């Protein structure tokens, strides 16, 4: 009789532990750090944000990339979305800071070492712009020069759930 009671008690304990273990796992997953990245300024950012995020790959030798920089600066200054740049070429932090100064880039440009944590891969064409939702998910990829109007239209479409 005591073996049957012990088996019943063990099964009962096992059933009681499953929801507790599940809760512990969920809490740990929610508190896991979000992947982050750093700009050449040394400031860290997270892919998740309250705002939408625009990530633009550019290169100094790419004429359309340089032509869209004033539009990207204006978008960044407006403050409605986060704008980040990524140099297509593997440059040192100092070379990127020099590039920012030379072309008056007014938004953060990522460190080359941060590229490993990106949710996107190196594009095949330049310029390439990624639009990320506040959850950090890529929702659109644009190839070629972007404009303020084009980005605003695209954001409006995604924010209102239209395809």
Fold topology:
Blueprint: H1 2-30, E1 36-38, E2 44-46, E3 52-58, H2 63-78, E4 81-87, H3 93-102, E5 128-132, E6 138-143, H4 148-159
Parallel strand pairs: 3-4
Antiparallel strand pairs: 1-2, 3-5, 5-6
Question: How would you characterize the overall build of this protein?
Answer:
It is a single chain. The protein is α+β, with helices and mostly antiparallel strands. Helix content is 41%, strand content 19%. It is built from 4 helices and 6 strands, in the order αβββαβαββα. The strands form 2 sheets. The chain has a 4-stranded mixed beta sheet with strand order 4-3-5-6, covered by helices on one side. A two-stranded antiparallel sheet has the order 1-2. The chain is elongated and about 80 Å long.
């Amino acid at each position: 009789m005591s073996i049957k009671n012990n088996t019943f008690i063990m099964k009962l304990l096992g059933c009681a532990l499953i929801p507790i273990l599940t809760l512990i796992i969920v809490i740990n997953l929610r508190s896991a750090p979000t992947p982050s990245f750093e700009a050449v300024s040394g400031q860290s950012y997270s892919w998740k944000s309250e705002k939408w995020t625009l990530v633009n790959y550019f290169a100094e030798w790419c004429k359309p990339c340089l032509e869209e920089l004033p539009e990207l600066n204006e978008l960044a200054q407006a403050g409605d979305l986060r704008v980040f740049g990524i140099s297509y070429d593997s440059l040192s932090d100092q070379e990127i800071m020099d590039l920012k100064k030379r072309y008056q880039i007014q938004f953060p440009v990522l460190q080359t070492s941060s590229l490993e944590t990106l949710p996107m891969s190196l594009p095949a064409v330049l310029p390439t712009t990624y639009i990320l939702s506040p959850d950090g998910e890529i929702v659109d990829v644009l190839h070629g020069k972007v404009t303020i109007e084009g980005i605003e239209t695209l954001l409006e479409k995604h924010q209102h759930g239209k395809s």
